[in-house]
């Protein structure tokens, strides 16, 4: 399984993750913060399924652009998955005919422009050889993390977890204990330790809180720190490095990790 941390920059290699998207094996996306900026356009068109963690702007910003970029007459539409809360916010606040056209109701030659699919926590479902399980996290609005298991026939070959915006949480770690061949966890680390009260208020993690969370994992599981707030990236990086995590590192943008 290959997981790419998508990054966007007009000045060369991106270093600041201000918009959030991940692409698995070139075909399955998690979040659409910068999905509509992926180049070349053929790479966007290869993605037919988008899992949304929640509806904060940095996670959905380019979803409308992405959907217009990839639509082709005669092809099945992209399916966008999210919780009832997330899809309700998309319908009412984005695809409402004012901020953006209502693409869900728009059809061409009888084929809908996009499909919205409601998912529920802990109800696993399959997408083209992946078993997906959504897990509730601890954020300021309803937010899901995703466990993605690659399956071949009845055999599960590898698994990763994309843990989106969250403060200290428990359910995701309980679920991961039963996942065989768990290779990696992508876990947020948004703020430095001297803003820990802000992190707790906004339900995010700092390096210290991050460390306490990954104590729930086997040391054999690789952990990638993501979602570093650009204004604090240097400070977070220094604090993170000082902790000398044996199995954790800061995720690199525009990098594809092979598990």
Account of the protein in words:
With 259 residues, the chain is of the alpha/beta class. It has one domain (2-258): Metallo-beta-lactamase, Chain A, CATH 3.60.15.10. 23% of the residues lie in helices and 29% in strands. The protein is built from eight helices and 16 strands. The mean pLDDT is 93.
Mean pLDDT: 93
Element order, helices and strands? Answer: EEEHEHHEHEEEEEEEHEHHEHEE
What is the CA–CA distance across the termini? Answer: 5 Å
Low-confidence stretches: none
Class from helix and strand fractions: alpha/beta
Structural shape: globular
Characterize the main sheet.
Answer: 7 strands, mixed
Strand arrangement across the biggest beta sheet: 8-5-4-3-2-1-16
Q: Considering DSSP H and I runs of 4 or more, what fraction of the residues is helical?
A: 10-25%
CATH class label? Alpha Beta
> CATH H-level name... which superfamily?
Ribonuclease Z/Hydroxyacylglutathione hydrolase-like
CATH topology: Metallo-beta-lactamase, Chain A
Per DSSP E runs of 2 or more residues, the count of β-strands stands at: 16
CATH-derived architecture = 4-Layer Sandwich
What is the radius of gyration computed over CA atoms, rounded to a whole number of angstroms?
18 Å
Percent of residues in beta strands? 25-35%
Please tell me the total number of domains: 1
Total of helices: 8
């Amino acid at each position: 399984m290959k997981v790419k941390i998508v990054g966007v920059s007009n000045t060369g290699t991106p270093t600041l993750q201000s918009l959030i998207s991940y692409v698995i094996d070139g075909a399955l996306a998690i979040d659409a913060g910068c999905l509509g900026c992926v180049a070349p356009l053929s790479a966007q068109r290869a993605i037919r399924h988008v899992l949304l963690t929640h509806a904060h702007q940095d996670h959905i910003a380019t979803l409308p652009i992405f959907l217009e970029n990839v639509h082709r007459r005669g092809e099945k539409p992209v399916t966008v998955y999210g919780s009832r809360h997330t899809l309700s916010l998309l319908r009412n606040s984005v695809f409402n005919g004012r901020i953006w056209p209502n693409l869900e109701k728009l059809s061409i030659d009888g084929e809908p422009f996009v499909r919205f699919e409601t998912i529920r926590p802990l109800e696993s479902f399959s997408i083209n050889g992946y078993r997906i399980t959504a897990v509730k996290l601890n954020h300021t609005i309803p937010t899901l993390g995703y466990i993605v298991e690659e399956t071949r026939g009845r055999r599960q070959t590898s698994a990763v977890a994309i843990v989106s915006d969250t403060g200290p949480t428990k359910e995701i770690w309980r679920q991961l204990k039963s996942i065989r061949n768990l290779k990696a966890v992508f876990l947020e680390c948004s703020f430095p330790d001297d803003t820990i009260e802000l992190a707790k208020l906004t339900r995010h993690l700092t390096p210290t809180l991050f460390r306490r969370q990954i104590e729930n994992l086997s040391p054999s599981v690789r952990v990638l720190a993501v979602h570093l707030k650009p204004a604090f990236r240097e400070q977070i990086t220094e604090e993170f490095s000082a902790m000398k995590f044996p199995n954790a590192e800061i995720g690199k943008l525009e990098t594809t990790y092979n598990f």
